[in-house]
Amino acid sequence: xxxxxxxxxxxxxxxxxxxxxxxxxxxxxxxxxxxxxxxxxxxxxxxxxxxxxxxxxxxxxxxxxxxxxxxxxxxxxxxxxxxxxxxxxxxxxxxxxxxxxxxxxxxxxxxxxxxxxxxxxxxxxxxxxxxxxxxxxxxxxxxxxxxxxxxxxxxxxxxxxxxxxxxxxxxxxxxxxxxxxxxxxxxxxxxxxxxxxxxxxxxxxxxxxxxxxxxxxxxxxxxxxxxxxxxxxxxxxxxxxxxxxxxxxxxxxxxxxxxxxxxxxxxxxxxxxxxxxxxxxxxxxxxxxxxxxxxxxxxxxxxxxxxxxxxxxxxxxxxxxxxxxxxxxxxxxxxxxxxxxxxxxxxxxxxxxxxxxxxxxxxxxxxxxxxxxxxxxxxxxxxxxxxxxxxxxxxxxxxxxxxxxxxxxxxxxxxxxxxxxxxxxxxxxxxxxxxxxxxxxxxxxxxxxxxxxxxxxxxxxxxxxxx
Length: 467
Fold this sequence. Notes:
By secondary structure, the protein is α+β, with helices and mostly antiparallel strands. Helix content is 13%, strand content 25%.
């Protein structure tokens, strides 16, 4: 998965587990950038009476680097607070929730947003919003009869033209986990696998599951180091780096009076995420937990796994005779290094660059001067759509296919014109698409979460009147 349960330790702490990060120029408001960080993976909608929610004891952050150092120049911090309205009931809600302030909702959650700006040795903090409401989860047709209306009520405006949303959404990431982690099989190419089986369509393992999303929409000039809109794609200030983290206090102590654990001491990072599948597929098992607690600026130690990714060596073995040119390629994968760790310099792709400097760091790199595409291609840049992954990441981008084809050698000619990719490199895929709730045309773009009453194993429906 993009980063669902991607490392041994964070898989035991789902409330702090980041699953996906998105960064794109807003298609319906191109003067802004939308940043989204998802947490709490694989939420089964019918999970009452204790439904999913953000952790009150977790510090969630979305970071932006704009100075070329791969360090956070701007951070947006989120702290959540949950209360119980009626201590005498076991129920999440005692009647239909008609609006997000409804007394029938027994466990409302609110949050505070703080912007931290770092310039040289000076750090400034500004609280952008307090007591902002989350929507409830989508319990079902009786409890949350008009879920889209509840979600709309949770979209709030912040100072200086910003918007924010924090709450449950349908997972838009799609992947065939059952096949990929069964010895690297891709169902559409089953017959070519070393252990061959009949070919079939891929199966989306995240179908019917929800996540919790933090979404921000911010005017472009507030994210660049110059404080203005870039002059064009080639403007060095046009590219920003984006990643998300979750942190916990250093110690946890069981408070017997409160009957729960409380945090003590300084905040320590326990999860981070930028490019999809980086820790999942690139970083070896023994390094995954350490990767999660380290900053992107220290990723030089991991670049050897990008230069020679394990999966690129496995593909020719798992699919004998299908990738002979990839098997014979002995050079370091400079194409993957540029895509994942530095951004693509000018001159590699005509009319495009998202280079952030020589410091290798796992960040989503978004050139904010590239306008939204009227008809987006889910394969993004490799299909000629420069507004898509790996130029940031849109919620509809098929990142699994893009990364499979890149690892299979399709992007090597960008930096090594002497290489001709195997024919299969342009066709390899896991055969899935987003079969969860439909994406929205406007902020926060991710689809409404599947409801507990409506959801059957393997399917998701937001119900009549809830689209």
